[in-house]
Amino acid sequence: MGIPKHSKYLIIGAGIHGLSTAYHLALQLKANGQGSGKDILVVDKSGIAAGATGIACGVIRNNYFQPAMRELMAHSVNVWDSDPETYSYHPVGYMQISPEVMHENVASIAKQQKEIGYESVFIEGESDSMKYMQGLFHDWQAKEITSVLHEKRGGYANNVKSMQGLASKVEAQGVQIISDVTVTGFQYANESDSIKAVETNQGTIECDYVVIGAGPWVKTFWDMLELPKTVSIKQPDGKIVNDVPMWIYWSLQEGTLGVDPDIQKTNDGGFPPVVHVDSVAPLYSDKTGDLITNKMWGIYYKPDFNFGGIQGGAAPFKVNEDPNKVDIDPYGSESPHYIVDDDFVEMWVSALAHCQKRFEGTLPQYKREPSGGLGCFTPDSFPVFDVFKDNCYIIADSNHGYKMLGIGQLVAEEICGTTSSLLEPFRFARYAQGKLHPVSNSPYPWS
Ligand SMILES: Cc1cc2nc3c(=O)[nH]c(=O)nc-3n(C[C@H](O)[C@H](O)[C@H](O)COP(=O)(O)OP(=O)(O)OC[C@H]3O[C@@H](n4cnc5c(N)ncnc54)[C@H](O)[C@@H]3O)c2cc1C
Fold first, then answer.
1. Per-residue pLDDT averaged across 200-218, rounded?
2. Which of 26, 30, 48, 64 shows its CA 20 to 30 Å from the CA of 235?
3. What pLDDT is recorded for position 32?
4. Total of domains in the chain
């Protein structure tokens, strides 16, 4: 049996956004009497969770300096909370542990979390921060920390298992998900900008509406649709910066320390929140004692039975190659280029030991397997959620997206005719209009 020749709604990509959109669109079509899941087809060149979603650390947090991002994340956490079992979601909470240079930014996040009713505790001052952390982990020893934001909601989910759960919900709505279908081009209705069909390696599929959730492959689709390769960005002072490349790649740095995850239990024997530490304290190698860096650094980690140890990462780095020449495939652990190296391993494990004594001397237990992966980022490193070519919704999350399970719900609402105020700040036109998001002092491109 070949692939269908027509589908009213064609969704490209079976990652978190494609699947979440399919599920919520099916529910909304049915609720509005506009159709059902049978009107939706999801295609993927590989299969469910074959892209960034399937290798993500799976951390879910609210901690963002940008109000629009925070509100979006609060919405997504509600969606995670709606079915933790199927989504393989562990609502253990999340901590942002910061040096003085970030204090003011994080204080404003804490204040605004209160205003939107997102439960968190905010601790200020070096000695109170140390006391709070040692109340959780007796061996906490990170230096020069002056604030702790402890979000009581959020946590992490098991990357592939959560997508299998979501896919089962999608299929239960009558949606078809077909693997091994590579989209290669688009056909347009005569003299119009509307897509009338999608070309694939298995034939052409006619459709009324297309959704693209292609993660790191978004630039490939952007180019296929002949959308602008560069943008002009209006700066806060009114000046226009021209010819900014639309897409750049970053290499994400993550790995697993192969110790028993139980060693990271809290003082009272419970599972701890996800820990994220940013620091300006000099970082020394746990192996040689040599200085690794005296610049700002950051790590995050959690005990994770799925990964089989303490899993987490550090700040990513920008891929300097011309974005047109970056090889996205083979992706993830299969990539010969974009996986972590020994420098990451020594830095990350040394940083773990800097924070908690229990990790001192554990470097030999690091799991020597390929990890990490590419992310495709927009010019300001914030998502673009918008409609192009009349009937093509592009979900380009700029690599913020595993936590964004709710985007599919909001996109589905927009497809059914209701504009989402939560998505409005993420339109493509913001670059030309200068409606940019505020920038924080964090070392990460997505904070
Ligand atoms: C190492 C790493 C760790 C991360 N950790 C986190 C985290 O802890 N928390 C967080 O919130 N985010 C995290 N992210 C970001 C997050 O994983 C992504 O933002 C998100 O998964 C993107 O989802 P997606 O559905 O857009 O894309 P993907 O999951 O990449 O799915 C895209 C799909 O499109 C398919 N596809 C591509 N081209 C074609 C084609 N031509 N035809 C048909 N199908 C095609 C692919 O096979 C793929 O399955 C991490 C990312 C990486 C790389």
1. 98
2. 64
3. 95
4. 2
